[in-house]
Design goal:
Layout: H1 10-59, E1 71-73, E2 83-90, E3 99-110, E4 113-124
Antiparallel strand pairs: 1-2, 2-3, 3-4
Length: 126
């Protein structure tokens, strides 16, 4: 009487381990990409909030003191190397004093380049 052998052969086990490894590698790559997109989305939201907050602050002060608010700053909420640049000019011409064009540009380094958000508004004398 011959005994029946049950179980898996070494080749079957190696094939199963290889397929499992490929699957885990794909999941790891997908989660890394998802994390990068999530980080990018967070920075975009933070950049928008910074720009909108800066515009709101500028709208609350006197139009005559707006030019003194122009310049560049940074934020700890964004990656190192970021810049928040505020530009204030008369509108429609540079010498205009009753209407100002305000541009807030928030930029930060991202994956070998720079991403930026521009908010622009007109502020008029009340």
């Amino acid at each position: 009487m011959r005994m029946r052998q049950t179980g898996f052969t070494l080749v079957e086990v190696l094939a199963a381990v290889m397929l499992l490894s490929i699957g885990l590698l794909a999941v790891t790559a997908a989660s890394k990409t998802a994390r990068q997109y999530q980080e990018r989305t967070v920075y975009i939201a933070v950049g928008r909030n910074i720009a909108q907050g800066r515009i709101d602050k500028l709208r609350s002060i006197s139009i005559d003191s707006l030019p003194a608010q122009a310049g560049t700053t940074t934020s700890a909420s964004l990656p190192a190397g970021n810049a928040i640049q505020t530009t204030v000019v008369g509108y429609p011409a540079a010498g205009e004093t009753d209407m100002r064009r305000v541009v807030v540009r928030v930029s930060w380094p991202e994956a070998g380049g720079t991403r930026s958000i521009n908010y622009e508004t007109l502020i008029v004398r009340r």
